[in-house]
UniProtKB/TrEMBL annotation, chain A:
InterPro entries for this protein: Adaptor_comp_med_subunit, AP2_Mu_C_sf, Clathrin_mu_CS, MHD
Chief localization: membrane
Location of the MHD domain: 61-287
Protein name per the record: AP3M2 isoform 9
Pfam family membership, one: Adap_comp_sub
GO BP field: intracellular protein transport; vesicle-mediated transport
Organism from which the protein derives: Pan troglodytes (Chimpanzee)
Source superkingdom: Eukaryota
Keywords: Membrane, Protein transport, Transport
Gene Ontology CC terms, in alphabetical order: clathrin adaptor complex; endomembrane system
């Protein structure tokens, strides 16, 4: 919400107070009663000292969930050695607690966190002095903090890609083969693997057979994408086939880059561990 | 949106089947043809009594406005509804009004009275939104009304309304800039506001209306710095950029004396970044040490700004991080700028738009402060998924960061980039390699070889770019590279890119003496294809021909003439012109010749090598993070960042009358500490004692007076003491009057006091050792505290019964060795820490009066002189940590011998103690002469209970059974904590652990300092700063168990008050409540 171009309210809790987010139930109710999603109460949240939290929050089930999500971002050269790799993490929370709870979250190994940025609710001084996250949470979903794990720590990339892509000068056919395999996954399965690669302009089409998953090649954008799914360590997924190149043209001298995305559930790659979560300020037991 | 289906159904119902168009979504078009009948419908709907119809109509009208259709003819119908009860309709009417009021000014006036009514609404939200809409209506006639409304709202109770007032200021200013002076008054008033809600908005108004009135900021500077962290994010951005400008005008450049700094003060105060006060201290020492050299001393306010903005680097908002980064870049000393690098690198993980802006700024920063980003080199490596703009900016940064040590890795990275599919990026990479080669001499040959290899690349663009870069590189050292030029000459057959061809031709022409055989041949080829060439190539062909004609006219004379003739008839006049000009110069004609003699000099003059520079080189004259910096052009409304002043303007303009800023007091504290004079006589010369005269100065029996301050005088026994008392009293009141400038008074008064002391009037002397005086909750007193506290021990142990006439010096000898002055550094550091905490506290109204405890309760009798056969013993709780064991309460035992014979061998005999209680005995006093007195310190661990410690006091001849029972208030030690910590701790100690009692405060103790004094006299607690003036908070820990004791006194008007004690030890809590209430209500 802006006033004369200056942001007046950007906190989602206040905005939700003004216009309630649509839910199925509310849509039904609105249809019947003819009311709208526009809040009929004055947005008192703007007046509060903790603008991120609505007042008078009530839940029958008090619960709080915290998700630690970490991303590895790595550049790997064609021989498989890591050029740069960094771990970026966020802690997303879904807090549904009655009243004005005051939470503290502590880590087993807070030293890991090299660079952090907080939701404004986090008390910075507590973090500076004790490395504890102390905060009055906003209601609902929010991003508690995002952090960066120092680049000094070597990052073990949990997957590898074997590739063999070759263009021959004379023929109009090229060979293409990729295999994806797990590496240091600590017993967890690698899921949601997708491989995408931008092929050089000279590639007209590709005829490939995957050992699992589905693949598509867009001859216009020259984008190859392969949806692999889970990796079974016994039977590594691979994608093999040939590329048909523009006849007569010399072989393309660019190297296609391969982008690989994957997910591992229940694993924080940096080894970050949450120690405990305490709640103060409210009398009920949340969990 | 989910509302859509419901809404269309509604409409179907209301409009009836006859008008099916009604069912359309208002935004879908078609129904808003410029048919006036439609508007009649709307008018009808607006005129009905049904809110739902009105709402419907308003929705459609607003949708029309959004689509750019004219809905102004509905104005009268809409304005009527401004008084509608339905909030939703009202809101939409407001939207309409803001859009059309300017066009229909007369009619708009009809709505004004509604807003004026709204401005008086009891609900702050309605007041605020009435003002918001009123100020958005751009009708010049209502300017006076708006002005009035803004002025009124600026002094509204609700900070939210005041915030809205601040928002309204720029709106009014843009409507009528003649109001500036009045508006500045309002801004000035709002700037003084202490709430975080207002701060951001008013600074925004300040920036819009009167950015040049920097003098308005002075008084509020420290407040803004301290509030900054709690302001909402958008406000932070505005405040930070305003403070950057402010600091540039008010402080000296931290980099001006770099060289001096390095050797002198670097360690002294850069090392103490986090500890401001310490820094300030060493500043002063540095200044004192080398006044002649005048090293740069950072203004404490400058430091305050840097320190308070630093945590904001951790903000989730990229704008705030960027704002802090530019602040540090522009204001911080070189050594500290580095902290921003990490945060900026973090922003690179954000959306590409954010990345773009951040990288632009990083590129500028990395030119000036390369070292800052070097550790993060790898973070700027390019990802294949980056958009081209980002890639090019990252390249820029990588090139800026490249140096002797990291160039191999950078070049290897560049090599990979060259094979990218993004051709623009490849071209940029080649240029980057060129820049690396020029900047770092060591790798020039490697780069050149690499570039030459690229010449065989199949991609023309790559080759062309390489040629251009090679040309620039070769210009630096042409002699050694004949081979490369030959190679390039061969390329002319293949390369088609005009720029590259032109570059090659220029190179051959320039260095034709290195390739004497090939050059004419190239010219021959070019002459053949001359007509087909691009203009830029043609020009270079003429150029080449001219140069060859001058150096090798035998072989090329004909060719040159041929080329010139071709050019003479070229379509492009530029080329024709050039040809004519060249011919006149080089071909000697009959009459001319003056010029042609110098033709060689003209054409083949040695040319300076081009400098390959970053395009970000001189962007830093724009304020980083600004739009102007991003565009590299001055945007409208850009405020030039002023240069540092030569001389620092007077820093005292920022002083606020009320000394509520811990920081300034800190500074003064330091000053005081340095003066030996003070530390010597501090204890004896406290000029600030309140009406309360110290119990210790009085005769032994006057022990009760301690708990009731101010009553000491009346209860004093001996007459001569009384006189002293009166004197004291007079002086005390005097110093009370002058509490405000107590410090200056101090200096003046000390001599007087000294004189008195030397006149052996030890009554007044020891009385002044009282630290009770320091409770007058003035921050200035607080400064004295650590110093005086550290010195407190000797005087208090010295203080002897009044009846004995012993001079101070003699007493010194009697001070038992076990009486150790509390180690000053420890105390200083704790109180410092507390001070610093006070600084960052949210509420600025705080008086950070973290009073340290007062030297305990008055004397209690241990052994009466009759019972003790001449030996009188009494004790006091000194409230200092006992040196041997931190869990022990230190008790000062005062012996005085009023018998005729010396008492020998005073010691503690076998104590009979309840479980848990232990005693650290005092060393044996060998002899106490008649009339003499002595003091010893013993430690007692009471185990957090008020049980009495019973023990025997033995002399050589007798044994006395004595017992010491501690008041509950002595079983604890003060703890320093901030308000927030206090609240948090209090939150943990609810329910059973909380004891609340109501009481009536008598008239005598309604003033702040009396309450504080009474509480701290009763219990050894530390004051916790508190936001509201009627609440007093104290905190302590029990000595043995270390459990927290939190005391809150909530004084309401008319004397009613509520006392709350939170403690795990409920017994202690209950007793404490009782004691405090007794003390307060007496």
């Amino acid at each position: 919400m802006l006033d004369n171009g200056f942001p007046l309210a950007t906190e989602s809790n206040i905005l939700k107070e003004l216009i309630k987010p649509p839910t199925i139930l509310r849509t039904v109710v609105n249809t019947i009663t003819g009311s709208t999603n526009v809040g009929d109460q004055l947005p008192t949240g703007q007046l509060s000292v903790v603008p991120w939290r609505r007042t008078g929050v009530k839940y029958t089930n008090n619960e709080a969930y915290f998700d630690v999500i970490e991303e590895i971002d790595a550049i790997i050269d064609k021989s498989g050695s890591t050029i740069t790799a960094e771990i970026q993490g966020v802690i997303d929370a879904c807090v549904k607690l009655t009243g004005m709870p005051d939470l503290t979250l502590s880590f087993m190994n807070p030293r890991l966190l090299d660079d952090v940025s907080f939701h404004p609710c986090v008390r910075f001084k507590r973090w500076e002095s004790e490395r504890i996250l102390s905060f009055i949470p906003p209601d609902g979903n929010f991003r508690l903090l995002s952090y960066h794990v120092s680049a000094q720590n070597l990052v073990a990339i949990p997957v590898y890609v074997k590739h063999n892509i070759s263009f021959r000068d004379s023929s109009s056919l090229g060979r293409f083969e990729i295999t994806v395999g797990p590496k240091q996954t600590m017993g967890k399965t690698i899921e949601g693997v997708t491989v995408t690669s931008q092929m050089p302009k000279g590639v007209l089409n590709m005829s490939l057979t995957p050992s699992q998953g589905t693949h598509t090649f867009d001859p216009v954008t020259k984008m190859l994408s392969w949806d692999v799914g889970k990796i079974n360590p016994q039977k590594l997924p691979s994608l093999k086939g040939t590329m048909s190149l523009q006849a007569g043209a010399s072989k393309p001298d660019e190297n296609p880059t391969i982008n690989l995305q994957f997910k591992i559930q229940q694993l924080a790659i940096s080894g970050l561990k949450v120690n405990r979560l305490d709640m103060y300020g409210e009398k009920y037991k949340p969990f | 949106m989910s509302a859509a289906p419901a809404y269309s159904e509604d409409k179907g119902g209301s409009a009836g089947p006859g008008e099916p168009e009604y069912g359309h979504d208002p935004a879908s078009g078609g129904i808003f043809s410029s048919d006036y009948k439609r508007h009649d419908d709307l008018k009808e709907m607006l005129d009905t009594n049904k809110d739902s119809l009105k709402l419907e109509a308003m929705k459609r009208i607003v949708a029309m406005i959004a689509r750019g259709k004219n809905a102004s003819d509905l104005f009268p119908a809409v304005v009527k509804n401004v008084a509608c009860k339905n909030i939703e309709v009202k809101k939409l009417v407001y939207v309409y009004l803001v859009r059309y009021a300017e066009e229909q000014q007369d009619l708009a006036l009809l709505s004004i009275s509604t807003f004026q009514r709204g401005l008086k609404d009891p609900n702050q939200l309605i007041r605020a939104s009435a003002l918001r809409v009123l100020s958005s209506i751009r009708v010049p006639i209502i300017v006076p009304i708006m002005m009035l409304a803004i002025k009124e709202a600026a002094s509204d109770m609700s900070p939210y309304v005041r915030k809205t007032a601040a928002h309204a200021i720029p709106k009014l200013y843009s409507l009528d800039s003649d109001q500036k002076d009045q508006l500045i008054e309002v801004i000035e008033k709002l700037l003084a506001d202490k709430t975080t809600l207002v701060a951001g908005s008013v600074v925004m108004a300040f920036e819009e209306v009167c950015p040049e009135r920097i003098d308005l900021i002075h008084k509020n500077y420290r407040k803004l710095c301290n509030l900054l962290i709690d302001v909402e994010e958008w406000g932070q951005v505005v405040i930070i950029s305003m403070l950057t400008r402010y600091a540039r005008t008010q402080f000296l450049s931290p980099t001006q004396n770099e060289s001096l700094l390095e050797e002198n003060a670097e360690k002294a105060f850069y090392g103490s970044e986090e500890d401001e006060a310490k820094g300030a201290g060493s500043e002063e020492t540095a200044a004192a040490a080398a006044p002649s050299r005048k090293p740069y001393v950072m203004d404490p306010d400058h430091r305050l700004l840097l320190r308070n903005t630093k945590p904001l680097l951790q903000s989730r908002s990229a704008a705030v991080v960027m704002a802090v980064a530019q602040l540090y870049f522009h204001l911080a000393p070189k050594a500290e700028v580095g902290v921003i690098a990490k945060a900026l690198v973090r922003l690179l993980r954000s959306h590409s738009e954010v990345q773009y802006v951040v990288l632009q700024n990083v590129a500028t920063m990395s030119i000036k402060r390369r070292g800052m980003f070097e550790p993060y080199l790898k973070s700027f490596y390019i990802r294949s998924t980056d958009p081209t703009q980002i890639k090019i900016l990252k390249l820029e940064v990588l090139t800026n960061l490249a140096n002797e040590t990291n160039i191999p890795t950078v070049l290897r990275e560049f090599q990979t980039y060259i094979r990218s599919m993004d051709k623009d990026f490849v071209a940029a990479t080649i240029q980057a390699i060129g820049r690396c080669a020029t900047n770092i001499g060591r790798v020039r040959d490697t780069c050149l070889n690499g570039l030459v290899q690229l010449l065989s690349n199949r991609d023309e663009l790559v080759v062309a770019e390489s040629v251009v870069v090679i040309k620039k590189l070769l210009q630096m050292q042409p002699a050694q590279h004949g081979e490369i030029i030959k190679h390039l000459a061969k390329l002319t057959d293949n390369i088609q890119v005009p720029m590259a061809r032109a570059s090659i031709l220029w190179l051959i022409g320039e260095y034709c003496e290195h390739v004497p055989r090939i050059a004419p041949d190239v010219l021959r080829k070019m002459a053949k294809s001359f007509t087909a060439e691009e203009d830029i190539v043609k020009l270079q062909v003429i150029n080449l021909a001219a140069k060859l004609y001058l150096t090798n006219s035998k072989q090329t004379k004909l060719l040159t003439q041929y080329v010139l003739s071709l050019a003479k008839y070229d379509q492009n006049y530029d080329i024709r012109d050039r040809a004519r000009f060249t011919r006149q110069l080089i071909v000697p004609s009959e009459q001319g010749g003056a010029l042609s003699r110098h033709a060689k000099k003209l054409f083949l003059a040695p040319k300076p090598a081009p400098v390959l520079e970053s395009s970000f080189k001189d962007r830093d004259h724009f304020q980083l993070g600004s739009l102007s910096h991003l565009l590299n052009a001055k945007a409208t409304g850009y405020q030039e960042l002023p240069d540092w002043p030569e001389e620092a303007p007077d820093p005292s303009v920022r002083n606020v009358e009320v000394p509520e800023w811990t920081k300034c007091s800190n500074r003064e504290k330091r000053k005081e500490k340095e003066k030996p004079f003070y530390s010597d006589s501090e204890g004896e010369s406290g000029p600030t004692e309140s009406a309360d005269s110290d119990p210790e100065s009085e005769s032994e029996s006057d022990s009760k007076s301690s708990s009731e301050s101010g009553s000491g005088e009346s209860s004093s026994e001996s007459d001569n003491e009384d006189q002293d008392e009166d004197e004291e009293k007079g002086r005390g009141s005097e110093s009370e009057q002058s509490e405000e400038d107590g410090k200056r008074k101090t200096k003046k008064k000390v001599p007087e006091r000294k004189g008195e002391a030397s006149s052996s009037d030890e009554g007044s002397d020891s009385s002044s050792s009282s630290s009770e005086s320091e409770m007058t909750s003035e921050s200035e007193e607080e400064q004295l505290e650590p110093a005086s506290w550290s010195r407190k021990t000797p005087p208090s142990s010295k203080s002897a019964p009044a009846t004995k006439e012993i001079s101070l010096l003699d007493l010194e000898d009697f001070t038992p060795p076990s009486v150790q002055p509390v180690s000053p550094p420890a105390i200083v550091s704790t109180s410092l820490a507390a001070d610093l905490e006070g600084l960052t506290l949210t509420d600025s109204t705080l008086v950070p009066s973290l009073l340290s405890p007062v030297s305990g309760v008055g004397r209690q009798e241990l052994l009466h002189r009759v019972a003790g056969e001449g030996l009188a013993v009494d004790y006091t709780f000194s409230r200092q940590p006992f040196s041997g064991d931190p869990h022990m309460v230190s008790v000062h035992i005062h012996f005085s011998n009023s018998s005729d014979t010396p008492i020998k061998g005073l010691h503690v005999g076998t104590p009979k103690l309840p479980a848990g209680i232990s005693i650290q005995e005092f060393p044996e006093i060998e002899s106490l002469a008649p009339g003499e007195s002595a003091t010893a310190v013993m430690g007692i661990n009471f185990c957090d209970s008020t049980q009495a410690a019973n023990f025997q006091l033995c002399t050589q001849t007798r044994q006395f059974y004595v017992s010491i029972q501690p008041p509950v208030g002595e079983l604890m030690a003060p703890v320093f904590m901030s308000e927030n910590e206090f609240k948090k701790e209090q939150g943990k100690l609810m329910g059973m652990n909380e004891i609340t009692e109501k009481l009536m405060l008598p008239d005598t103790c309604r003033s702040d300092h009396i309450v504080v004094q009474k509480v701290t006299a009763t219990a050894n607690l530390g004051r916790v700063p508190c936001g509201t003036s009627d609440e007093y908070r104290f905190a302590g820990r029990t000595l043995t168990g270390g459990s927290l004791v939190l005391l809150t006194l909530d004084a309401r008007p008319a004397g009613a008050a509520q006392l709350t004690v939170n403690s795990e030890k409920m017994v202690i809590g209950t007793m404490l409540v009782k004691d405090v209430i007794q003390a307060l209500t007496q």
